[in-house]
Give the backbone structure.
Amino acid sequence: MERRAAVSLAAAGLGVLAWTLVPAPVFRPPGPEERRAALGPLDGLGEAERRAYAEAGHEPLPWPGARDWLVAHPEAGQTFEQYLASRPPAADGGRRVLYLAPMGAQAPALEPLVPFAEAFFGLPVAVLPEVDVPPSVRTRPAPRWRVRQLFVPDLLDLLRARLPRDAQALLAFTGDDLYPDASWSYVFGLASLSDRVGVFSTARHGPPFVAAADAGGRGRERAMKLLAHEAGHMFGLAHCVHWRCLMNGANHLREFDARPLHLCPVCLRKLRHAAGFDPARRYERLERAFREAGLEEEAGWAGARRRSLEPGR
Ligand SMILES: [Zn+2]
Ligand SMILES: [Zn+2]
């Protein structure tokens, strides 16, 4: 989701022209060998960690539908080895806190997301006071919609000035629609990995962009998904093409909703490298957080993974 979704809309006309000249690359879901290669060799790991990367409970990625992310953006993915080579921003001793901040009056409630985020990343999570959007932030009406949009570079400047010293990252969430550049119609969010700041919008999870009937009842689940996916990017995880996974890209809300709220073995190995949690303890906490949020299917999934890691199994 985020920046390239907007590019593809802005460049839709050009895309049609390019297709007539150059055959578009086609995404092909990887097979078992490619998935194992993406996970990398496990020798040298302890028995418990090896079992945390087992394939049981994970579903291969299906062929994408015509409007789905991997048709619009046939990404190559990122193996565990490539992840290490990218020198991802790990949560080191001095920078271990994930900070969340509401931005603007329409911001989603963040406090209810804290237990889930702490379980997911195995790091302390704190909510900062609301970041006001001052009149100096540039705005415009959204193309085709009578909705105000905020200019993302101005928002990232506000966040850079507030980054706490112990922050692994600072993620701001707003209910306002966003644009990153005059030529783009909108953007779901944008982050600067090197500056450890990002801003993400829930505006397009609800009216007027989607019908109220589609928005109802899923607000908290969508906010959890948005938070974990975007914070995953802040740890250097690229989009996943190996399994059905929280880190899959999503081109539209239906695809976003179809993504699971958990990580595949490849992405779990990356996040564990960056955040350093104990996988069994993590699933135990996630099971509780999902149950508390009323997400029974995800709670059952996390419980099954936790049990598969019990000693003696
Ligand atoms: Zn993404
Ligand atoms: Zn994955």
In short: Residues 240, 242-243, 245, 247, 263-264, 266-267 surround zinc ion (ligand 2) (CB under 6 Å). The chain has a mean pLDDT of 88. The domain at 97-234 is CATH 3.40.390.10 (Collagenase (Catalytic Domain)).
